[in-house]
Amino acid sequence: METVAPFIEVIDEIKEAGGEVFNLCFQCGLCDAVCPWNKVRPFSMRKIIREATFGLTEIDGEDIWRCTTCGKCTQQCPRGVKQIEIGVSLRRVASEYEVFPASVRSARTARASLISEGNPLQGERKKRADWAKDLSVKTYTEGMEALYFVGCYLSYDPRMKKVATATANILNKAGVKFGILGDKESCCGESIRKTGSEEVFKNLAKENIKTFIDNGVRKIIVSSPHCYHTFKNEYPEFMVNFEVVYISQYILELINEGRLELTGEFAKKVTYHDPCYLGRHNDIYDEPREALKKIPGLELVEMTDSRKNSLCCGGGGGRIWMDTPKEDRFSDLRLEQANEVGAQVLVTSCPYCITNFEESRLNLEYEDILEIKDITEIVNDML
Ligand code: SF4
Ligand code: SF4
Questions:
Q1: Is the CB of 69 inside a 6 Å radius of any atom of ligand 2?
Q2: Which of 41, 79, 109, 366 is deepest in the core (most CB within 10 A)?
Q3: Could you give the angle at the alpha carbon of 193 between the alpha carbons of 140 and 41, nearest 5°?
């Protein structure tokens, strides 16, 4: 009797989220072969899909919360099964029944903070622009060249505020007429949607869209691949289309147009980590590398898993808010890969990646051998 309710609901939810393509799965197991979880512990997306097909998913278990939505299995599946959408729809059912395993409960705290303050970090809304207090950063007004959408981690997290500061400096140095929305900016909603909280996502998206329209925003510069992804690919569900530019793309543009001149030297061996939501989900592989190559003295080397095979940091799909035991962290493996190619700096362009990498740097005691940097931090040092 216990499986009857999930039986109907799971199947209906999946149909709504991803059509009936999950029926196409022929259990080849290719998804499991490429999934980063299987580098640290056994996990089977193939099994989740099999069970979901019959409505037999254990919605109170840990497994439906593991997927980081990295997109690796999606690009490999020979049948076009939408694994991420299936996983998210299962989380929707679990959220509806309010059944969460212990490791996921911290994501509920993030959700409550998103509802009350518009960010997942329990920061007060009115303090959202405090990072910019002593900098020359204006409030966005219609007619400016671009809106800089800062994002939650860069607004509140002490490590990531340095990236916001570097970004503002770069834009100012290049003479870009830009502004921020301050406490009128809300989380883009990308990650909370992936945890199954669809209503919270919709409310955040609607708030942002209204603010963009009210303020005459046309072009948006973003620092997070998650903001980029959702503005570009998910906000159009609300019948709007804004021009979205990723900061590393924009930096390259500014350099090529002669608006930004790099004068210093960065004589270090650097490796670039492709964030899942920039690379696999949005095909942006070249511009960050091209921007890095413009930095005098910088030597760029590639890790084993790069570009479309990039190893996920473990932070997508809301996992950034969930508890992951030390031995299960993919970010540790990524730092080892960076070390293997002799990199002195692991550079990336995503707040979740940087947060996870900084933690792994401490776990692995790599403080003396590897630095973690956002592209903007290196560029800013060269101005
Ligand atoms: S790769 Fe696709 S077809 Fe193969 S088991 Fe996974 S979901 Fe099914
Ligand atoms: S999206 Fe990534 S983490 Fe999720 S099942 Fe596929 S390969 Fe694994």
A1: yes
A2: 366
A3: 125
How far apart, in whole angstroms, are the C-alpha atoms of residue 22 and residue 17?
Answer: 10
Strands 146-149 and 219-222: parallel
329 touches ligand 2 (CB under 6 Å): no
Closest-CA residue, ligand 1 atom 6, reads 31
CATH number, span 116-253: 3.40.50
* Domain 262-381: CATH architecture, name and number where available: 3-Layer(aba) Sandwich (3.40)
Domain with CATH 3.40.50 in the chain: 116-253, 262-381
How far apart are the C-alpha atoms of 244 and 233, rounded to whole Å?
Answer: 10
* Å from CA of 343 to ligand 2 middle: 27
Res 6: pLDDT: 52
pLDDT (tens digit per residue) in 137-171: 999 999 999 999 999 999 999 999 999 999 999 99
pLDDT tens for each residue of 194-216: 999 999 999 999 999 999 999 99
> What is the rounded distance in angstroms from the CA atom of residue 165 to the CA atom of residue 327?
33
Q: How far is the CA of 39 from the centre of ligand 2 (A)?
A: 12
